Amino acid sequence: MKNIFCLVALFIGLTAFVDLKPVDAEKSVTFSINNFGLATRGEFKGLKGAIKWVPENPATSYFNVTIDANSINTDNDMRDSHLRKEEYFDVGKYPNITFTSSGITGSNGQYSATGNLTIKNKTKNITIPFTVDQTSNGYQFNATFSINRRDYGVGGGSMVMSDIVKVTLKVNALP
């Protein structure tokens, strides 16, 4: 009887979290930055990685995801080619942008993930506020946050481009 109880407890413990894979859907990772005073919008593709989500205990959850820097798309091929060069994302040398969480806090659908964002081999500790909703077959994670492009050596010394980039995430994650 004791062994059966232990097996049931182990099964419950193992199913209390969900290992997820992000789905690289349209508009999963978008950004906006002012350039010459006008909002320039774009997106990245190639989202992949691992997400562990424990709704009952978010502190035991994590995000370990990457995006393909070469996939940048602003609906302007000439600008996109320029953004792939050394002064901006230097995709030949740094093909991925990564985020690895070190802690998650919050409750009732309102959370924050603290972790390391790495762009062009420059890593900064950031906090991303996010919401999460359960879907019919997984979870939807939504976030909006800002970063300073100069912290990551993106855009060189451009004086016509804002330093602040607004990033929006709409990530579907499935088991």
UniProtKB/TrEMBL annotation:
InterPro entries: Lipid/polyisoprenoid-bd_YceI (IPR007372), TTHA0802/YceI-like_sf (IPR036761)
Keyword flag Nucleotidyltransferase: no
Residues annotated as domain Lipid/polyisoprenoid-binding YceI-like: 19-174
Key word Glycoprotein present: no
Pfam families xrefs: YceI (PF04264)
Signal peptide bounds: 1-18
Cited SMART domains: YceI
Keywords: Signal
SUPFAM superfamilies on file: YceI-like
The name this protein goes by in its record: YceI family protein
Species name: Danxiaibacter flavus
Upper lineage: Bacteria, Pseudomonadati, Bacteroidota, Chitinophagia, Chitinophagales
